[in-house]
Write a structure and sequence with these properties.
The chain is mainly α. It has two domains: 32-94, no CATH class; 124-321, MetI-like (MetI-like fold, Orthogonal Bundle). It has helices spanning 2-28, 34-42, 49-54, 56-64, 66-73, 81-90, 97-109, 123-158, 163-177, 180-191, 215-253, 256-263, 268-280, 282-286, 288-298, 300-306, 312-321, 325-353. The chain is globular. Belongs to the binding-protein-dependent transport system permease family. The chain crosses the membrane at residues 9-30, 135-154, 166-192, 222-245, 280-307, 327-353.
């Protein structure tokens, strides 16, 4: 097992370099970089969403000075080349692409992610600031989806082919097919002041007066804000786990040891939960880390924007739109690294649950 872990850790290095290298290469050909974004603002042709939300224009004024910037472009057809050169140097575009990439990777190895282009703060502080919202969504959607999926999957396996199994499968397939963001919009229209009811808030993780609330009122307020986002994410989140649980139980129920247990006089509940459960849940339990990463990083992107939740998904979206490359690449690096580590952890969980599995006997 030690050799397997070492191989997996070593393989993470070229994987991370490949992910970052391809992303960096694509960015080089993407129009409208940060320099162009600033030029568009200076010439009155555009305005960055990040600057509107977080005062990025003030940061530029501090760096270059109001008088200097105004003098450079007021009444002119274009911008002074000297100012453009300053912008390129400020954003690091005065160096060749390969040098910039190598510098970036060297800094990332030391977990030095630099500062945001348009927000007067470090990237790591931004990520830490936005993480509680995304963690809340990821943790609760994982708890709710597994709490629904496992009992439902077991019930479907026991009642395989029955009317209950058929109609619940139809509901699951439909729920999985409906995009979570589309269902989220429907929930807003129905229950968040869209066209019908105004029962739930549409912005933030807590209310403005959260600090003045009692402890139980804080709990109620917290879940009041999370209700619609969690429902929107839950619709498709439990489908895969439900069917996976059902199929795992069906496979185990057909095995010889189950026939033997029944022949010994054990009732169906003893057979199901005393013998089948541990083996059938192997693949489901081992997939928990991956399911959390999926809910944490991918599922919340559109939901955070739809419900105006200021988490990592919304941060990543605004960073891409505004070409805030330090934030974009830092979040990509962290998420990719965590994904690879979680993949390794999932394999180790397999061996912990079932010692019969030995990854050293197969190729990585």
């Amino acid at each position: 097992m030690g050799a397997y872990i070492l191989r997996r850790l070593l393989l993470m290095i070229p994987t991370i370099v490949g992910i970052m290298g391809i992303s960096f290469l694509v960015i080089q050909f993407a129009p409208g970089g940060p320099v162009e974004q600033v030029i568009a603002q200076l010439t009155g042709q555009g305005d960055s969403a990040d600057q509107r939300l977080s005062g990025g224009g003030d940061m530029l004024n501090q760096q270059f000075g109001n008088d200097e910037m105004n003098a450079k472009y007021r009444g002119a057809q274009g911008l002074d080349p000297e100012l453009i050169a300053k912008l390129e140097k400020q954003f690091g575009f005065d160096k060749p692409p390969l040098t910039r990439f190598l510098d970036m990777m060297w800094n990332y190895i030391r977990f030095d992610f630099g500062e945001s282009f348009f927000r007067n703060t470090t990237v790591i502080d931004l990520i830490v600031e936005k993480m509680p919202v995304s963690i809340s969504l990821g943790v609760w959607i994982l708890i709710f989806s597994y709490a629904i999926s496992i009992p439902l999957g077991i019930k479907k396996a026991v009642a395989d082919g029955s009317p209950f199994d058929v109609w619940t499968s139809g509901v699951i397939v439909i729920g999985y097919a409906v995009p979570s963001f589309l269902f989220g919009i429907l929930l807003i229209v129905l229950f968040a002041g869209g066209s019908f009811f105004d029962w739930f808030p549409l912005r933030g993780l807590v209310s403005d007066n959260f600090a003045q609330l009692s402890w139980w009122e804080k709990i109620v307020d917290y879940f009041w804000h999370l209700t619609l986002p969690l429902i929107a994410l839950s619709l498709s989140a439990f489908a895969t786990t439900t069917l996976l649980t059902k199929n795992s139980f069906i496979d185990e129920i057909k095995k010889q040891y189950v026939v033997t247990a029944r022949a010994k006089g054990l009732n169906e509940r003893q057979v199901l939960y005393g013998h089948v459960f541990r083996n059938a849940m192997l693949i489901v339990i081992a997939g928990i880390p991956g399911a959390f990463i999926s809910a944490f990083f991918t599922g919340s992107l559109l939901i955070e924007n739809i419900f105006s939740l200021d988490g990592l998904g919304r941060l990543g979206y605004l960073s891409v739109v505004n070409r805030d490359y330090p934030v974009v690449f830092a979040t990509l690096y962290i998420f990719s690294l965590m994904g690879l580590v979680v993949g390794l952890v999932s394999d180790l969980i397999y061996t912990w649950i079932d010692p019969r599995i030995d990854f050293d006997r197969r190729d990585v």
